[in-house]
Design goal:
With about 130 residues, the protein is mostly helical. It has four helices and no strands. It is elongated, with a radius of gyration of 46 Å.
Length: about 130
């Protein structure tokens, strides 16, 4: 005995969806599409804001670098030999006329081979 089913009967319900099914699929697709659009816009906006903040941070970093370089240049000018000599003379210091170098005696070390005894602790060994 053979059992056969006609393809028309088997797939009849899947061939043409009802109006209600089509409406549900259309609404679900629209909601999904709107959700994706909103997410994409939110991501694009956040990216633009972060890009702007990064550009502002780079500009501020450049400004700080210029200030630091300016301060180093001022420090170099103030501590230059010519400026130091000028300020020392204004403060009343003058260069030494004759200088003498004194010899420093060499240090000697004495080694001892005796080891001092350690004091015993009352109450026994630890």
């Amino acid at each position: 005995m053979s059992f056969t089913v006609a393809p028309d009967i088997m797939f009849k319900q899947f061939r043409y969806p009802s109006n209600r099914q089509a409406l549900v699929v259309a609404i679900a697709s629209a909601v999904l599409l709107l959700t994706l659009i909103v997410l994409w816009l939110a991501l694009s906006t956040r990216t633009a804001v972060l890009s702007r903040q990064l550009e502002e941070s780079d500009a501020r970093q450049d400004q700080i670098d210029q200030e630091v370089n300016s301060i180093w240049n001022e420090l170099g000018e103030v501590t230059s030999a010519q400026q130091m000599n000028k300020r020392m003379r204004e403060a009343g210091f003058v260069p030494a006329e004759g200088m003498e170098f004194l010899a420093q005696p060499t240090a000697t070390a004495t080694l001892s081979t005796t080891i001092p005894a350690t004091p015993s602790v009352e109450g026994g060994d630890r």
